[in-house]
Amino acid sequence: MNKDLKILWDDCLQILRSELTESAFNLWFKPIQPLSFADGTLVLQIPSQTVIGYIEENFIQQYARAIFRTFGAGTRVEYRVLIDSQSGLSASAVSDGLQVEKMRHEALVVNHPSQPAFQQPAVPQLPPIDSRLNPNYTFETFVQGECNKLVRTVSLSAARQPGVSTFNPLFIYGGSGVGKTHLMNAIGNLVKQIYPDKRVLYLSANEFKTQFMDAGQRGQVANFMQFYQTIDVLLIDDVQFLAGPNQQKTQEQFFHIFNYLQQSQKQIVMTSDRSPMDIKDLEDRLITRFRWGFQGEMLRPDYSLRKDILKNKMLRDGIDLSDEVVSFIAENIRDNVRNLEGVLASLLAYSMVMGQDIDIRLAEKVVEQVAPPAAEETQIDDIVDLVSTEFGVPTASLMSKSRLQTVATARMAAMYLARLLTDRSLVEIGKYFDRTHATVLHAIDAASDLEQTNPVFKRQLAKIKNQLLK
After folding, report:
1. How many domains does the chain have?
2. Same domain flag for 217 and 285
3. C-alpha distances in Å from residue 164, one per residue of 19, 208, 212, 260
4. Does residue 261 lie in a domain region?
5. Which of 33, 113, 163, 349 fits as disulfide partner to 265, beta carbons 3.0 to 4.6 Å?
6. Which CATH number do you get for residue 319?
7. Burial class (CB in 10 A: 0-12, 13-18, 19+), 233
8. Torsion-angle region of residue 102: left (phi > 0), alpha (psi -120 to 50) or beta?
9. Among the listed ranges 190-194, 290-294, 363-367, which one has the minimum average pLDDT value?
10. Exposed, middle or buried, 357 (CB in 10 Å: 0-12/13-18/19+)?
């Protein structure tokens, strides 16, 4: 590279750095490399065509001023798109480029429509990718019930109009085994069915972290970013694993990818075992963005849905069970769908190996072995009784509409502990206290903050926790 050109380009970058945020500068301008400057034409190498498209849309004025100040009026800009970082192979693109005319007081003069500021170079069609979807997880095989009806309906809408509906991003949360991964794959499979050319990618948050660390070690973070910018529907499972005190770089990279895809009207779907507000050690800006679209909680399947799930699985696998056996399993396996299907698979295995019919006695034996009764869980009633005693507030007052400070503090403590120590959903906690989902969420947030700032309140909560967990 010509030494004078490097000096000029560094000056240009310094101007841009002074006018932009550090993250925007590093992401969009720092990767650009100057190749030559002769006869008023500046040739730049760019990582991908998306870079110039984004700059033109968001930073055109700053970019034009920096070019004007550094390279002079009348400068033309041409681009070379980097295809192979190892060989340095680039795709040439001769364009009118950026025509920087003399500007009074350095104000940007918009070019004539027949001469656009940027003419993006044509690039080869993107190669297909492995979407990594489970073909068995579809909307047809997903059994709907009252506890998941809303989330399923929203997911179906997002799949039919990815990126353009109000459900972008779509954040699905709930306990283990309630069907989040199934529903996420169903979205991806339907998108591929309706829009075969769309690039759909499913992966876990842990896989995303591994890919990013590997790209960093090989010096290919730009290629990593470029790849994710090509995705039309991004499905990230267990997004809570992006959190952590040592995950700042991973979170920053995901933040930029999220922003780019969302602004480009690409669909983003995430699952988590908790709501965005309950994910600890996650940057506030990510929490804010996770809450931009629709947040839907999937609850544990009720008795009716558990029976329907078993019958659906029996139909698909050709298994014939009596109503007595189905009812027994549905009554005793309450936590998640995986355990329901696990008991069914175990029953079939016992029957085949032992040559025994699947009757109620065999069902009792398998249920006891595969899913033994769990230890008695903490109940909200127990929490309310201990909170009432510790805070000196009658239990009836906790359920009342009273707004007295002492009552309100005790009530939010009870809601907070109910969320922390039981597997009850926000909706279920709200019903118990005759409050809305939003009120419960606000109370939990307030109690969490108070626990961090008020030593007395923190000691009261700790005392109650110790009594409950003995």
Report:
1. 4
2. yes
3. 32, 25, 28, 15
4. yes
5. 163
6. 1.10.8.60
7. buried
8. beta
9. 363-367
10. exposed
Do residues 379 and 422 touch, judged by C-beta distance below 8 A? yes
Integer Cα distance of 412 and 440 in angstroms: 8
What is the end-to-end Cα distance of the chain in Å, rounded?
71
Looking up residue 12, the CATH number of its domain turns out to be: 3.30.300.180
Interval 238-283: pLDDT, tens? 999 999 888 899 999 999 999 999 888 899 999 998 889 888 889 9
As a whole-number percent, the residues of the chain with pLDDT over 90 amount to 28
DSSP E strands, 129-285: 170-174, 200-204, 233-237, 267-272
Same domain, 233 and 273: yes
Q: Please give the biggest Cα pair distance in the chain.
A: 92
What the block records as the tokens of 386 is 């201990």
Q: What pairing do the DSSP bridges indicate for beta strands 170-174 and 76-84?
A: unpaired
DSSP string, 387-417: HHHHHT--HHHHHS----HHHHHHHHHHHHH
Q: How many residues does the chain have?
A: 470
Contact 256, 23 (CB under 8 A): yes
CATH number at residue 256: 3.40.50.300
User: What SS3 state is found at 374?
Assistant: coil
Element (H, E) at 433: helix 426-433
Q: Which backbone phi and psi does 322 adopt, to 5 degrees?
A: -75, 160
Residue 192 in tokens: 């591929």
Domain that holds residue 407: 380-468
Could you tell me if 341 and 206 lie in one domain? no
Tell me, yes or no, whether 79 and 186 share the same domain.
Answer: no
Task: From 176, 177, 182, 194, select the one nearest 151 (Cα to Cα).
Answer: 182
User: Has residue 205 got a pLDDT over 60?
Assistant: yes
Average pLDDT over residues 219-227: 90
Whichever domain contains 396, its CATH number is 1.10.1750.10
pLDDT given at position 365 = 79
User: Where is pLDDT greater, at 103 or 295?
Assistant: 295
Regarding whether 294 and 153 lie in a shared domain, the answer is yes
Helix axes 323-332, 360-370, angle to 10 degrees: 20
Answer yes or no: is 70 within a domain. Answer: yes
* Band of pLDDT at residue 119, cut at 50, 70 and 90: very low
Tell whether pTM > 0.85.
no
| Whether 102 and 12 share a structural domain | yes
Shared-domain flag, residues 312 and 293: no
Phi, psi at 91, each rounded to 5°: -100, 120
Looking at the fold, whether 410 and 442 belong to one and the same domain comes out as yes
Tokens of 341: 């299907």
434 contacts 409 by C-beta, under 8 angstroms: no
